[in-house]
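Sample intake sheet
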Amino acid sequence: MSIQSLIDDELSVERESKVKEFWYASDLGKCPASTYFSRKGITPTHPLDARTLRIFSVGNTFEKWLFDIIKKKHPEARQPETMTIKEYEQGVLEALVI
């Protein structure tokens, strides 16, 4: 079994469909139908391919690495978290430095 196969198997387990309870800023550039069905928890007819999942995973790793750098300079910085603003429903705060 190749390393790539091990990674692909792990990533396919991580990305199971789930019902999204809120709209997210990252949904803005997506196909409206795709966003709607995703929010309803409907399994896509064309799921993301293994390469795309690997790219997303590397992006998540990069985000964690970048936040660790921010945290060194600004220890008061908070981890990414979900926040709710009444006027805009809900979003994900990437980093907050006060």
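Comment: The mean pLDDT is 77. The longest strand covers residues 81-85.
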